Amino acid sequence: MAYDFRQSPVVDQVGIEERVARFNTRSIKKGSKVQALKLALNMIDLTTLEGKDTEGKVTQMCYKAMHPHLALPDLPSTAAVCVYPTMVKTAKEALKGSKVKVASVSTAFPSGNSTMQIKLLDTKLALDNGADEIDMVISRGEFLKGNYNFVFDEIAAIKDLTHKYNARLKVIFETGEISTLDNVRRASDIAIYAGADFIKTSTGKIGVAATMPVTLVMLDAIKDYYFKTGIQVGMKPAGGISTAKGALQYLVMLHETLGNAWLDNKWFRFGASSLANDLILQLEKEAKGVYYSKDYISVD
Amino acid sequence: MAKKEAKKLEYFTDWKYAPSPEATDHIRLQKQYDLFINGKFVKPNSGKYFDTINPATEEKISSIAEANDKDVDSAVKAARGAYDKTWSKMPAKERAKYIYRIARLIQERARELSVIETLDGGKSIRESRDIDVPLAANHFFYYAGWADKLEYAFPNRQPKSLGVAGQVIPWNFPLLMAAWKIAPALATGNTVVLKPAETTSLTALKLAEIIQESGLPDGVVNIITGHGPVGASMVNHKDINKIAFTGSTGVGKWIQKAIAGTDKKLTLELGGKAANIIFEDAPINQAVEGIINGIFFNQGHVCCAGSRLFVQESVAEEVIKKLKDRLETLIVGDPLDKNTDIGAINSKMQLNKINEYLKIGVNDGAEMYQSSCSIPKKGFFVRPTLFLNTSQSHRISQEEIFGPVLAIQTFRTIEEVIEKANNIPYGLSAGVWTDKGSRIFNLTSKLRAGVVWANTYNKFDPTSPFGGYKESGFGREGGLHGLMPYLKF
Hints:
heterodimer; A: alpha/beta; TIM Barrel; 8 strands; B: alpha/beta; Aldehyde Dehydrogenase, Chain A, domain 1; Aldehyde Dehydrogenase, Chain A, domain 2; 2 domains; 6-stranded mixed beta sheet; disordered N terminus
């Protein structure tokens, strides 16, 4: 499919912000709230991406992913855990027999400043260790230089590899670095046309992470592509979403932009670590009518 | 990646939003409302009352007094007395304090006012809460600031007040229109007789209570209720110095005839049939949102509604597909539900008029497309409607429908769209969507419309003047310009 990425649709920031404000006036109550809180929990990529990560920490987090809060029956597990390539084996082992997937960051995460050869090796390491999903970063420097073909090619190359392993590919733009909404739209088009299974906002490693306006621009790109081709692409806002209220606002936006077909962790994920516990706190409140102390909720 | 056959998206099937109605237990409404004359609520001379109903349920809310000529006369006398004895003699700085106080009281009672506005008029609580009531307060705040600065607004022109202003307002933004009218009149030192529309008198009467509470001298603002003849009686009253009317073009023309040869000043804010123009380089997704907001805001009961859509042919298919898709996510229903986007049509009469236009559109050969949403069985509701493949000669493209009905035409060149946009007796507003700044300026100078929005629509602010060209009326409301119709120099 020939596509000139300089011709990506323009985005009006004021219009986007007004639309987001409108989503945020939706009032989600009672049954529809409980349903959404559980859905959000089921969409989390529970994440630990730190230099100080250990096998012990990852194993504990995997248990949390499978059993977010045993005190409440019928809670879903999270969608996946997200770790560094070196931790994939540990996570895979810990999650054996569960539905929880293992996602691994790769391609010289978080900066992406390395050679293609090393990025491929990095990805291969994660895949050989059993990763179900790869979260790659794009070369923001090349993108900002206008080398859109370079960015397209690097995504396509990683996609070739993940495809061989039957793994799904998430492409991280680090929207805080590419900065404008026009750029976010352009990066979305590049990644989608290069074969991304998911597009993802941020690494969580810089100050500005996922925002609703940025996510809406990406959802619009997904929708335009779906209208053209009938092919679904997933969305993962990551970083900065730590409250249940915020997650519900994202779900309203997702729902009213892409509809029912995307209300599933196959097509939408939250990259988050502390969000799970606030969702659990709210679910406890809905079930029992009172807020519990946070000491009742595990911190793995 | 999963390939899907259907490219149509589905909404609200797997995840429905539970009802989230705004509480109504906090509002205070009387069973019967009298006329507000000379600072007091007085019984109408006629002894007659009429029902005001909730258009979403068709249930009666309250009884409203029907004024007659005698009541109009006593309201005008009260206004004249207040003008002569107190208001015209009061230092402007003191006048400002009262206006400011009214603004504060509106804010304090915002929640009650929004609920009543929604109950009585049918508009969604989201709009009355987020737009009507805050904007009404802002108009009072804004004009309070001008009261003692008129000399600076019009240097060396010695601005003077006119006397008694007779103001007749429509039913689409009851409280907001009252604020648009009363605030500048008071700031410029005039006294007021105001008549709200018969289907939506309640918030104006609540405003009368607020005015009482503010301690505004008796007679400075008088609010009388009733049907058309009350307005006619005001227009013909000899001791009114100024008529300000917002409503239909037909009535506007009648008013202008009626006061010909008198020294009454006049401003008219009448109908519209605005062109909303989408160029191929526009931010399409935001433009679609702007089209939706332009025509479906307040059920389309907006004189400046973007009711004629012009889409450049190269993007017409995309825009129309996206419009159809967006219609499915508009929630139509109980106006009190916080999630409702489109509430009830204001009255049975208006509902009949809109339905009549739907028939006309279909009979004239335009292709009608409606949202698949279900609408409540009781109450006055219309599905959001698009008419595709319309042309200038269709009646639905020429006449003001004042409902959630959009007539869509395509165009090829900029000259063509300017000619077509201006080819209408109205000239109130227009919208332009393009990424190109120079094109915006080109169009704003060529479109014969009082307000042109660029890459947005239906934006209102007290500091910005609003008003029309041609049969959309004359005179400006809002901003510094909004002071002029209430002053002589």
